[in-house]
Write a structure and sequence with these properties.
This protein has 347 residues and is of the alpha/beta class. 43% of the residues lie in helices and 15% in strands. Helix 5 links the parallel strand 8 and strand 9. Residues 5-329 form the Amidohydrolase-related domain.
Length: 347
């Protein structure tokens, strides 16, 4: 039974308070409507990104899903709203608005959407408390976090308890690049998106491996956006560094040993890359993700998997939907209900 789950999609409420006016500061995102079907996300008075109603309208999304053959979208916040730089209580307010909106959207269309929440990572206890609310009260299926928090890599001691609780509670973590390294060298050509984000993701993945976090929390479920960025292709170099610098080792085994615990979305656009990732990590660790509804998204979702030759039927089905369902702890009964309902809806 084929079920297509688009693991990587972003959503934002159509309206939310002007935090820049409420709390001050130029880094708060503000949504300014430009027409009935579009808006601009403004940061510091500058246009960060133009968006269409696809980004807030579940009905528009469902129409696109039906057209493109997607059964379920996994909804996650837009990283610009993480607001890790803000006071924790202010960032928590922003997070709650989005988490509530995502939960409401899922509740309204439970056969078409699954939700991921966001938490204020700049304060560990607050992040853990909101994570607990997301999974226990709002019934969201995971948490999206950024690749760094105010320039601190993810092995900073202040994040250890968060990862510990995510493992204990079996909360899947989706790591998405933001505040990319080398931004001062990437103002031209939109390199922040095409070079900076893949490099930033690689740094986050390498940090979790080299620091021993994945060794310490072997059951922690972590997925990296954009096919892991450049991480899969520098992994042998990380192993070489581990080999030649024994005085820097913090793990029992080299990085590639623990990298097998990682998961990745399929958004790397090229069947050659998909084949490499299957060989390196196993097809079970890859699932479809499109980055809907932004310009760099894959159209149609799953295209790169459909174009990857020499896959078995089971591998294809797993990567299109089965692997994501397992990662997100969506039970078989619920999966069957979702599939049946979404199929009936499209008919």
């Amino acid at each position: 039974m084929e079920m297509r789950i688009d693991f990587h999609t972003h959503i934002i409420p159509e309206s939310f308070p002007d935090f820049a006016q409420k709390y001050g500061g130029e880094r708060w995102p503000v949504l300014e409507r430009t027409c009935t079907c579009g808006a601009s996300i403004m940061v510091g008075g500058k246009n960060f990104r133009d968006v269409t109603d696809q980004v807030w309208s579940p009905e528009k999304r469902i129409a696109d899903m039906d057209k493109e053959g997607v059964d379920i979208q996994v909804l996650s916040p837009i990283p610009v709203t993480f607001s890790y730089w803000a006071q924790p209580e202010h960032a928590l307010e922003m997070a709650k608005i989005q988490n509530d909106f995502i939960a409401e959207t899922v509740a309204k269309y439970p056969d078409r959407f699954v939700g991921l929440g966001t938490v204020p990572m700049q304060d560990g206890p607050t992040a853990i408390k909101e994570m607990e609310r997301c999974v226990n009260e709002l019934k969201l299926h995971g948490i999206e976090i950024g690749t760094n928090v105010n320039g601190q890599n993810l092995d900073h001691p202040s994040f250890i308890e968060f990862f510990q609780m995510a493992e204990r509670w079996e909360v899947p973590i989706f790591i998405h690049p933001w505040e990319t390294l080398g931004r001062d060298r990437m103002p031209n050509h939109n390199f922040m998106y095409t070079v900076g984000m893949p490099s930033e993701t690689a740094l986050a993945a390498a940090t979790l491996l080299w620091s021993g976090i994945m060794e310490k929390f072997p059951k922690l479920k972590v997925c990296f956006a954009h096919g892991g960025g450049s991480f899969p292709y520098i992994l042998p170099r990380l192993d070489k560094g581990w080999e030649v610098w024994p005085h820097l080792r913090q793990t029992t085994h080299p990085p590639s040993y623990y990298a097998k615990q990682f998961y990745f979305d399929s958004l790397n656009y090229d069947p050659l890359n998909i084949k490499y990732m299957i060989e390196r990590f196993g097809h079970e660790k890859i699932f479809m993700g499109s980055d809907y509804p932004f310009l760099l998204r894959e159209v149609v979702p799953g295209k790169v998997l459909d174009e990857t030759l020499d896959l078995t039927e089971q591998q294809r089905l797993d990567m299109l939907g089965g692997n994501a369902a397992k990662f997100l702890n969506i039970g078989q009964e619920k999966r069957s209900d979702i599939y049946a309902n979404s199929t009936n809806t499209r008919e």
